[in-house]
Amino acid sequence: MNKPSGKPHPASTNDERFKALLKATSDVVYSLNPDWSIMYELDGRGFLLDANKPTPEWKTRNVYHEDLEMVEAAIAYAIANKSIFQLEHRVNRADGGIGWTFSRAVPIFDSEGEITEWFGLASDITERKLAEQSLAQSRDILEQQKRTYETITSGTPDLMYVFDLDYRFTYANTALLNMWGKTWDDAIGKGLIENGYEQWHAEMHEREIDSIRETGSSIRGEVAFPHATLGRRLYDYILNPVFNESGEVIAVSGTTRDVTERDQWEQRLKESAERLQAMNEEFAAINEELTSSNEQILATNEDLTAANEALLDAKHTIEESKQALRLAIDAANFGTWYIHSVTREFITDARLKELHGYYPDEPLTIEQAIAQITDEYKDYVSQKLENAIYNNGDYDVTYTVIGLHDQRLRWLRAIGNLKSDPSGAFSAFTGVVMDITEQKMEDIRKNDFMGMVSHELKTPLTSLSAYLQLLEMRSQGNTDQVIRRAISQSVKQTKRMTDMINGFLDFSRLEAAQLEVSRSDFDIANLIKDAQEEVTMLYSTHRFIFEPVESQVINADKGKLGQVIANLIGNAVKYSAPDSMIQVSCTSNQDEIKVSVKDQGIGIRKEELPKLFERFYRVDNNNLISGFGIGLYVSSEIVKLHGGKIWAESNLGEGSVFTFTIPLK
What we know:
Layout: H1 10-24, E1 28-32, E2 39-43, H2 58-62, H3 68-81, E3 85-92, E4 98-109, E5 115-124, H4 126-153, E6 159-163, E7 169-172, H5 174-180, H6 184-187, H7 199-215, E8 219-227, E9 231-243, E10 249-258, H8 260-298, H9 305-321, E11 334-340, E12 346-348, H10 350-355, H11 366-371, H12 375-391, E13 396-402, E14 409-420, E15 427-435, H13 437-474, H14 481-511, E16 520-523, H15 524-538, E17 543-546, E18 553-556, H16 558-574, E19 581-588, E20 592-598, H17 631-641, E21 645-650, E22 656-663
Parallel strand pairs: 17-19
Antiparallel strand pairs: 1-2, 1-5, 3-4, 4-5, 6-7, 6-10, 8-9, 9-10, 11-12, 11-15, 13-14, 14-15, 16-18, 19-20, 20-22, 21-22
Helix pairs in contact: 8-9, 8-14, 9-13, 13-14, 14-17, 15-16, 16-17
């Protein structure tokens, strides 16, 4: 007789372990017959209704009705393929609600491989599925909000964005992404430094965000930032708090506008005002000198009375004309537009309608806007517009329009750019229009004034010059040195003012594109000789060296080239100390002549050399030296009209060399 071994039977041990495992798991346990028509048992675990006896209606009892067809299809597949059943689907919870489960059942086979039973577990995944649905809904909402924001902000050139309180960008419109040269995925969620801001710039905005969070107040400022394609630009920005229902700041929104053009206009206005002040001071100084000289001459000769009266009249004319030179301009308001490249839909704001003479509530089409453009610009603007919309060409045009209702002539400047829709089906052409009428009319009035004043002054000065030369000839035997010196100085001052007025006349003709050269054949050596004789008479305070010049016949405007040489010599005298040396040379080869004037004056800074030949430019080395800054500009244009070149070489404190060349052929 065998004794009991004391060990549990393997079968009973496995059953006990299996039951223990079922008690330990939190999953729902169930078993079904081979064709899934009857559920033998179901431990619902409080999630599903329990089944303590065979239940044929288990599907309608436990499976959510909208998922029943999907469940039956998965069951049929598992039975047909004798494979594991696994599926996520909705169920009717024990508490009457709707839940989600992940169900997994395995077939139990007999010795012949036939299914005798299905045994399964069902996990409660309701919370996970609800979280996934909430996350998907949130993503849909965020994406819808992003599309809404993009639709609203795509038609403006302004930069729009939102920061969280950790200084990260949570939104940026297309204009800002283009300025950065980045995509949404590259930029959103990133900080200031990551999006290309310099350290000081990032720290400044971070301090501003902290201040807005603490005070709830907006902040406005201006700052420079490098544009991805346009280079460094100036921007005006405003940062605003975003509050939640409790009045707490939860984010900071911002709007930024490119004000580079406005800043440049303001700078030009400031420079124009400074130049106007310099012109007024120069006229006052000249008038004071002439008045003093005239008083001395009138004491000895009645013939100068008429000349003096003419000068006084000229002075009166100048004083009355000062008011006409005041430059004033209002900050320009911008009009905006949007053009669909396929439908040609044209959307504008009220300001653009106003610039074309329309009322704010009137419709305005592209054709109507172009119809208001004057004939001389209509074809030009139309061609530029079509090329910009369909060929992505540049669009920066200046033109005139006649207002529909007010019949007012306006000068407008329009700037636009093409933006492709993400779908690729069309492009949007957007841009701005600004009113530059005041700037244009101011330029026209200034040029007309300069021409008018120069013509008005030239006649009395010509008479005065003749009187002075006659008086100078008659005073040769006069022993009174004071009178002779006064007459001599008056001749020089009159010559100086005559040259200045001739310069204004040439400048006025240049601005009106009417300055012409009258060519003739002459010997350049004779022109240099004439210049030598003139400076000997005018400038006794300096020493001149005129290097020998070989005879060379050229075809050019002798008078205007003489004017260029006289201007270069006059500048050398003004910017060099008395008794210093001024050297004039003229050489030639088979291609060109070359004239140089070298002085020992104060010199010019390297950075100023490229600006010397610009309109109204004066070096800052000595503000006491008179001049309007047009002599070199006119000289440069005269040389260019001859097909030549002009330039300057200098080191500060070491003098300067001004050179021009004229081609022989």
